[in-house]
Amino acid sequence: MTFASLLPAWLDAFFIGPFRWLPDPTLSLWLGTAFLCAYAVLGGEITSTLLFWSHRGYYERLQDEVVKAHNLSVEALRAGNKEAYTAINKQAHERFGKAFFAQAAVGMASLWPVPFALDWLSLRFEGIPVHRIPFTDQSVGYVFVFLALYIPLRILFSRIKKRLPGFRRVEEARRRAREARGAMRSFFS
């Protein structure tokens, strides 16, 4: 039993709708998959945004600690205090690791719909060849169509989301936090 087989009938009908709009089966597969990809991108981005808002203070505190520890290590290096630099730089690395993986978690949260969308597609289109690979006996199926559409849609959405109201607020909050925290000092100036 797969997750997609547990979907309510109305949600399954919602997902399959765009696949039935065109008379040509290949074009219908591309159109329906484009809609499914758009749902996956939007659902993932909404999840990522909600995760950011619910843990915003924690993420900003981690970033503040990274900048502070880095700047302290630069000051220690400039003062010629190698012991202080080594100790503070070790703390900076640890804080950077925490901040990095926290940010990675927010980013990965936007990908959760992908396996479910692929699972749903497998219920409908498993074993159906979509395009034959030239000069071979092999063909590609629904996974190729999904990835060929999902990746460009994801890139496009990342470029326009800053103009959309809910997502614009997240970007503004991040910008204000960066400005309040200040910049990382350079080792070389």
Q: How many helical stretches?
A: 7
Mean pLDDT: 86
Rough outline? elongated
SSE pattern, N- to C-terminal: HHHHHEEHH
The strands making up the biggest β-sheet line up spatially as: 1-2
**What proportion of the residues is helical, as a percent range?**
over 70%
Intertermini distance: 61 Å
Please state roughly what percent of the residues sit in beta strands, choosing from under 5%, 5-15%, 15-25%, 25-35%, 35-45% or over 45%.
under 5%
Model regions low in confidence, pLDDT < 50 over at least 5 residues: none
Secondary-structure topology with pairs:
Elements (H helix, E strand, L loop, with lengths): L8 H8 L8 H30 L1 H23 L3 H28 L3 H13 L5 E2 L6 E2 L1 H19 L4 H17 L8
Antiparallel strand pairs: 1-2
Helix pairs in contact: 2-4, 2-5, 2-6, 3-4
Explain what you see.
The protein is mainly alpha-helical and 189 residues long. Helix content is 73%, strand content 2%. The protein has 7 helices and 2 strands; from the N terminus they run H-H-H-H-H-E-E-H-H. It has helices at residues 9-16, 25-54, 56-78, 82-109, 113-125, 142-160, 165-181; strands spanning 131-132, 139-140. A two-stranded antiparallel ribbon has the order 1-2. Strand 1 (131-132) and strand 2 form a beta hairpin. Helix 2 runs antiparallel to helix 5, helix 2 crosses helix 6 and helix 3 runs antiparallel to helix 4. The chain is elongated.
